Amino acid sequence: MKLTKMSHACVRLEKDGQTLVIDPGGFSEEDAALGADAILITHEHPDHFDEFRLRAAMENNPMARIWTLTSVADRITAAFPGRVHTVGHGDTFTAAGFDVQVHGELHAVIHPDIPRITNVGYLIDGGRVFHPGDALTVPDRPVETLMLPVMAPWNKISEVIDYVREVKPQRAYDVHDALLTDLARPIYDRQIGALGGTDHQRLTPGASAEV
Length: 211
Fold this sequence. Notes:
It contains four helices and 14 strands. A hairpin with a 4-residue loop joins β9 (121-124) and β10. It has helices spanning 51-60, 70-76, 157-167, 185-195; strands at residues 2-5, 11-15, 18-22, 38-41, 65-68, 84-86, 92-95, 98-103, 121-124, 129-131, 145-149, 171-175, 199-201, 208-210. Helix content is 18%, strand content 27%. It has a seven-stranded mixed beta sheet with strand order 6-5-4-3-2-1-14, covered by helices on one side. It has a seven-stranded mixed beta sheet with strand order 7-8-9-10-11-12-13, covered by helices on one side. The longest helix is centred in the last third of the chain and has 11 residues, at 157-167. It is of the alpha/beta class. α3 runs parallel beside α4 (185-195).
């Protein structure tokens, strides 16, 4: 499976000639979802869900489908009738040849005064890749490659490190990193790498790895 890191929270997975894209939001490239056969959205925040990018991808490939939670599906189903599927925690489905399991229910706490919204994570092909969205969800099975949300208004580095320790992936690649400055990146790399207990790596936008 080929994993390509796009900007911020978006990743592209390619296998057997098909492409699955997760979270092509407003901080990602405008063409982040183009060419996708399937698109997964973790939650409604604009850095993960951008209707312009979705519309471009769906028009580019009339066979493309979207899987997402109710709060997002309610906003886009009318634009793509019959092509949007609603999912929740515990669901399993196949999208563009990828086996997907849904884990998690709520967005991480930003502040107690801000109501929590729904958020789901996607476990791909039995644990080959896990993208948690905006939460520190721990799947109930081993994870080979964890897409690690390293910097957000709702987390701090000690939580990120403890999350890696709890999931115990074979490797972790940074996502949710558009707000992380170049000045801070070496600090995050050093501390997560030294304390997380796994192979911690970072891909620049557009770079790929085999997982």
